[in-house]
Amino acid sequence: MGKREASPISTPSYPSLQDCNSSSADSAASPPRSLRSDAPSRAGISSKASVDVNGEPPSFHHSRQGRSNLGEDMSNGAVETLSEVFDPVAALAPEPVPPVAGGGEANGAHSEETISKGGKREIVLGRNVHTTCLAVTEPEANDEFTGDKEAYIASVLARYRKTLMERTKYHLGYPYNLDFDYGALGQLQHFSINNLGDPFIESNYGVHSRQFEVGVLDWFARLWELEKNEYWGYITNCGTEGNLHGILVGREVFPDGILYASRDSHYSVFKAARMYRMDCIKVATLISGEIDCTDFKAKLLDNKDKPAIINVNIGTTVKGAVDDLDLVIKTLEECGFTQDRFYIHCDGALFGLMMPFAPKVSFKKPIGSVSVSGHKFVGCPMPCGVQITRMEHINALSRNVEYLASRDATIMGSRNGHAPIFLWYTLNRKGYKGFQKEVQKCLRNAHYLKDRLRDAGISAMLNELSSTVVFERPLDEEFVRRWQLACKGNIAHVVVMPNVSIEKLDMFLDELTEKRSTWYQEGGEAQPPCVAADIGSENCVCALHK
């Protein structure tokens, strides 16, 4: 048989993202095939677009309908070829500014807030999403000859990597350690590693990393002072899963128990209460964000007939406050709750790894479980966490799974087998002393930031043994977005992580003070807000509290 000749073909044109800067009216009339447009473009159109009964903007359906004709559009030139200066991030509309949290609405998902000055953008809470996406398109039949699609994909990824590197420079508001190097683990990325079921029982699935997982769990058990034969745990997919598991164990131990959590607890704690249909009582907090044990005592006495399941925060989300574990236990005892009538879960998502060097978290105290995030202070590149509980409690949750030839007491089924290897790698390289040095560096730099803010006349607060610096919310939401600050009401915060250097803090401070001089001009109408109600009068330097 002779060599088959390829028939003449036309070179396909892959999508350009430049069309996403067009107006919403143009989009509705002839939507770009390469993008889904869920909301108005960056052309200054109001984001209060109508939605249909399915909760989807009209333009979403236009894009859906257009996808079937993508190949035709490519052939006839309706879709432009990829520009040499194409930047996928420049093509994306800027991320909407963070909505004002805690604005007083009972149901924030349906409230609206004007965020930026001059009415430039209104955010509909619950619709605060990216306005465009990079569409998935079907390969053309001739791609194996032209390689155009591969070139397009490579171009998108290269520019996306550049964007990530740029955004990392201005990352201050969220507790992720971006200082890591896992090049040595690249050789393992070609394997589908899955730690199904119980970490301590090998299942029928042989491509796993249980030996690494158990090594990591042993390390944390030692850190929190629990013997090997007295603990059970696993590596979770995130910090929320650790809370879901810890509270579930408490609920299984005390099916009629009441969940107590401070108002400043992470939202996943209240999510757990809804999921498990538990009675949940919110406890007041002190100005620092720490649980108010006076209010806790009153609520315990009102419900003495029911066991207590308590969430103790080892670093709250916004203020970085640490609940006084010893005082919580003392309060329980004063209210007549013996150790067989309460279960304590410690949410240590961030500070669970910082606090032991104080130390405060220990299974020598009557606690039931501790969870910590692996992608925060440790610096794992994928979300993960560690959950440790007492062996005596886990039997209430564990079940045989014949399909796996194992037992299971985890929340999820399949579990990322790469995460334990990343954690094991970091723990071995740094060890206890390495983490101690990083904790000390973070605390030192956090104090530096707080002092510089106060010197600049900016209200600021820093809790003891915390690296979360809380300060008055910047007036300019573009500045908030640039530095990726987390905000709630009148306050914002910076979480000082190991990758946050003095140089980065200086750059942030210089820019903040320069911007602030334009927001609050001497004798002008706008004046710095009073945040005494949020961080205490001793930390507020407004005109009233100077």
Provide the fold topology.
Elements: H1 24-29, H2 58-66, H3 70-76, H4 88-91, E1 112-114, E2 122-124, H5 143-146, H6 148-169, H7 210-223, E3 231-236, H8 239-253, E4 258-262, H9 267-275, E5 280-283, H10 293-302, E6 308-313, H11 325-334, E7 342-347, E8 369-373, E9 385-390, H12 391-394, E10 399-401, E11 406-408, H13 418-455, E12 460-462, E13 468-472, H14 477-482, E14 486-488, E15 491-495, H15 502-519, H16 532-535
Parallel strand pairs: 4-5, 4-6, 6-7, 7-8
Antiparallel strand pairs: 1-2, 3-9, 8-9, 10-11, 12-13, 13-15, 14-15
Helix pairs in contact: 7-13, 8-9, 10-11, 13-15
Biased composition (Low complexity): 22-43
Catalytic activity: L-serine + H(+) = ethanolamine + CO2
Cofactor: pyridoxal 5'-phosphate
> What strand order characterises the main sheet?
3-9-8-7-6-4-5
User: Helix/strand-derived class?
Assistant: alpha/beta
Individual helix count: 16
Cα-atom Rg, whole angstroms?
26 Å
CATH topology name of the largest domain = Aspartate Aminotransferase, domain 2
Q: Please, what is the CATH homologous superfamily of the largest domain?
A: Type I PLP-dependent aspartate aminotransferase-like (Major domain)
Biased composition (Low complexity): 22-43
Catalytic activity: L-serine + H(+) = ethanolamine + CO2
Protein name: Serine decarboxylase-like
Region (Disordered): 1-74, 93-118
Question: Could you give a quick summary of the protein structure above?
Answer:
Keywords: Decarboxylase, Lyase, Pyridoxal phosphate. The chain is of the alpha/beta class.
